[in-house]
Amino acid sequence: MKTTFREEDNNFVMEFEGRLDTVASLKTAEEMEVLYNSKGHDIILDLSKLEYISSSGLRLFLNLVKETRPNGSHIFVTGASEHIRQVFAMTGFMRIFEFK
Predict the structure, then answer these.
(1) pLDDT higher than threshold 90 for residue 44
(2) What phi and psi values does residue 84 have, to the nearest 5 degrees?
(3) Distances (CA, A) of 3 to 37, 42, 92, 100
(4) What is the DSSP letter of 7?
(5) Cβ partners under 8 Å of residue 81, min gap 6
(6) Distance between CA atoms of 53 and 100, rounded to whole angstroms?
(7) Helices 82-91, 55-68: inter-axial angle, 10-degree rounding
(8) Residue 39 has pLDDT above 90, yes or no
(9) pTM of the entire structure?
(10) Residue of 91, 60, 84 whose CA lies nearest to 99
């Protein structure tokens, strides 16, 4: 699992590449810490290179929403494959995140 962070057009963008499973979630959670300081920035989760997401990975995204929305940040998901979209749909996460 690899993540890449960048600022783009006043947004925080994090790209996820590989498999976000239980083992990878621990390291990924640490790498996502920078997103929690998003006050004044929207967050874009680029899933175009994400192959798989487990419940642990979904939990990371849910915690991000809980922590950053009260600060006024919006979270957008972009590039999700049909398979990843199905996982989000089955778990009800399509209602939580804004997809681009």
Answers:
(1) yes
(2) -65, -40
(3) 17, 18, 24, 19
(4) E
(5) 47, 48, 50
(6) 18
(7) 70
(8) no
(9) 0.95
(10) 84
Q: Which residues contact 83 (CB under 8 A, 6 or more apart)?
A: none
Question: What is the distance between the alpha carbons of residues 38 and 71, in angstroms, rounded to a whole number?
Answer: 8
Q: What is the pLDDT of residues 48-89, one digit of tens each?
A: 999 999 999 999 999 999 999 999 999 999 999 999 999 999
Token readout for 63 is 């915690």
CB 100 within 8 A of CB 77: yes
Tell me the DSSP string of 14-71: EEEEEEE-HHHHHHHHHHGGGGGG-TT-EEEEEEEEEEEE-HHHHHHHHHHHHHHGGG
